[in-house]
Every structure is written in C-alpha cells, then in structure tokens.
Amino acid sequence: MLRPASVPGGFAGSPTSAGWPEKSPEEPDTLFSFFMRSRVPLIAAGILSRAAPALAQPLDGSPADPRHTYSTAMPDGIAAPDVAQTRLGSLRFLVTACLRTATLACLLLPAAAAASDMVLIEGGTYRMGSETYYREEGPMREVTVGPFLIGRTEVTNARFREFVEATGYVTTAERGFEAAERPGWPPELLEPGSMVFAQPKEHVHVNNPNQWWRWVPGASWRAPEGPGSTIRGRDDHPVVQVSPEDAEAFAAWAGGRLPTEAEWEMAARGGVFDDPFWDEPFDPVTGWRANTWQGQFPATDLADDGHHGTAPVASFPPNDYGLYDMLGNVWEYVADWWVPAHPDRAETDPDGPPETLAARFSHPEIGARRVIKGGSWLCAPSYCLRYRPAARQPAERGLGSNHIGFRIVKDAG
Q: Distance between CA atoms of 385 and 5, rounded to whole angstroms?
C-alpha cells in the first residue's frame, strides 16, 4: 500500500480546557491566501475567464500537507454569510413552498421511502479516529453512540428531484448573488455556478489544486459538469453540486438530519473496528470495493474499477452493516463543524465543536466549515488516501462540487 512518506503539517496546537485544539500560530496560509496572492491581479485586470480558475475547495487530491486544502477563496473584504441565517432561510423557503403549493406530495413523499432504504445501527462504544495517516484524524478516543437509522445509500439524483419537485427548493448553486450582496466580486462569480473538476491533459504539479478545479457558471445538481452536461440516465447516481445547506434542507423534508461525524464513522466501519480492511479499495480475491481513482492523479484515471466519475449507488459490495459507498464515490457531509483534530477525551453522542471554535480554523471571509467524510472517485492512493472511515476534510457550507454528496440519518425509536 502506498502511504505518504511523511505527514507534515496537520495541527500542532495545544488542547483547550474543553479538550478541543486551539488555533495553532504556526499554521501556514490556507489555499485561500495562496489563491488571492496569485489571482487577484488577474481578476483586477479582467483576465478571469468564464471557467474561472478554482476558488479551490478542499478535496480529493489534497496536497501532502493537509493544511493547504482547507479553503475556497472569497475576495478581500467580503464577509462569509452567517450560517444561522442561511439555514433559517432554507427552512423558511421550504415551509413557504410547501404551504404555497399545498401539495400532498410535499408531506407524503418523504414518508414514501421504503423502510429498507434505512439501516438500523444499534450503537455502542468504539475507538474513533486514527493516528496512522493524517494528523487531523487524531487523537484516537473512545466514543459511545446511541442507536440510529442511516441511509443504505447516498441520496440519489432521483430522490433529490422528488424533493425539489415537491417543494420548489432552489439550491445554493442555482441562486447566484446580486452585486450589492457581494461588492467587489467579479461578475463571473455572481452568476449561479459551482466547482467542477477539470482533468488536466498532462501531468501537473500536485501542490496547486487550482490546476484541476474550476468555478463553472451554470454548474448545478442538474448539470454537474456545467452547461451542456445532464443527469439524464444518472437517476441512480448520488446527487452532487449540493452544499451542506441544501443537504440539511433535504434532510428536514425527509424527516431526518445529517449524521454526526461519530455516527457516520461508526456506520462506515461496519462493525469492524480494528481491521485495516478498508485501507485499500482493491482486494485481489473479491475485486474493487469502492469507486476511487486509479492512475496518476490528476491527469490519468485508468478507471480499472469500471467508473470515471460517480458510479450508480450500490455498484460495489456493502459493508457488514449493509451500507453501500460509505467510502469512495462521493464525499459525504456530516453535521459537525470542522477543526483539524479530535478532542482528547472520551465522549457520548458527540456532535462536534462549536461553530465559534471552527471559525478559527478558516479564513474569516470564508467562515466555519463543515466536515466531509469517506473520500470520493477522485481519491487516489498515491495522493489523497482518504477512502477510510477515519479520514476527514473540511468543506464550505455554501458551496458544492461534483464529488460531494450526502446521506441522511434518523433517530431510532
């Protein structure tokens, strides 16, 4: 198995009295800072194209130093939206749409999912995290989780379409901004759009994700790769180009919520807590176990697992809980705010750090970010190595990409 020769960076701060890490004064610039230093003069000169170079999201193919992956860029002087207000706005939109349409579907569609779509996880105590790969995955600690129901698969395009048709919901990627809302932004970035992986035609240096991420106006869950693309024929693929805000709106409509990181990781382990079974997606006996990247990232995907891009859900064997695609295919949002470490204490039903603490680990114009889990089709053993239950990265709360999706959970009983 290929592993990083070293894992520099991560987090070097000391824990707070509550067990969470504090902001490390030695933490280097985020990709936001790198991008702004290199791109602001071009923006000012009007050189930013319609497919603007990425205001790069974290994401698969992360540089060797994980600290350089935690951002998308916001122009100087632009404050990140207040998360409480954006969530409240989504819920208001959802309720208003249901009342306005007065459709039975708005109330009945969430209940129409068969019971087999959810799997009961009995809960229990396990050692969460890892101290083998990236520093943000540790320290390992004992966590107790109560019983819960979790989606057998990621939410599909077909299921998300039901939600949109029932409620009239408009995703963050489809909304765009008024110039008054984001003064100083280039016009291209005010348009509705999202982040799209743009595979280079030849090998590029992997320390700069701007070389394979693009902001594409018009990209959305309906057109994941941008204008001209479609989800026709992909009803059974996981929905992508949705933000955490969109995922939470769907979950509320479906009578559920996003899982906590502790719930998600317990489910992903499939009851196997001390076996490195999932450290590699290929088993010489049983074959591929997950949709990941084969070849030299980011220029060459051999697609030996049968897929380039997302795969239909349940294309690979389930884990021992009967859950599909917990690793690979698409990253999945969880409810926790992101900080680059776990608290050094045992916990019962943890729900992550407070938003105020998470904001310390992000550029102030980006705001606190959410945790994503499980890796994706862009995750390569030579570069990302995050198709593991303990792996984690941050994602912005108002921005999606074509390799992040979600599944929901419900409280048991």
A: 12
pLDDT at 95 over 60: no
Residues paired with residue 234 on neighbouring β-strands, in sequence order: none
Tokens 């048991």 locate to 412
List pLDDT tens digits, range 290-312.
999 999 999 999 999 999 999 99
Domains of the chain, start order: 31-411 (3.90.1580.10)
Partners of 124 in the β-ladder: 145
Burial 95-111 (b: 16+ CB within 10 A, else e): eebbeeeeeeebeebbe
User: What's the Cα-to-Cα distance from 246 to each of 70, 103, 218, 284, 399, rounded to whole Å?
Assistant: 20, 21, 17, 39, 10
| pLDDT single digits (tens) 102-142 | 444 444 444 444 446 999 999 999 999 999 889 999 999 99
- Beta strand ranges found along 156-204 (DSSP E): 193-197
Beta strands in 289-367 (DSSP E): 331-337, 347-348
Q: How far apart are CA 238 and CA 311, in angstroms?
A: 8
Report in angstroms the alpha-carbon separations of 118 from 102, 204, 254.
Answer: 28, 42, 12
Provide the token pair at 394: 């941050």
Tell me the pLDDT tens digit for each residue of 243-276. 999 999 999 999 999 999 999 999 999 988 766 6
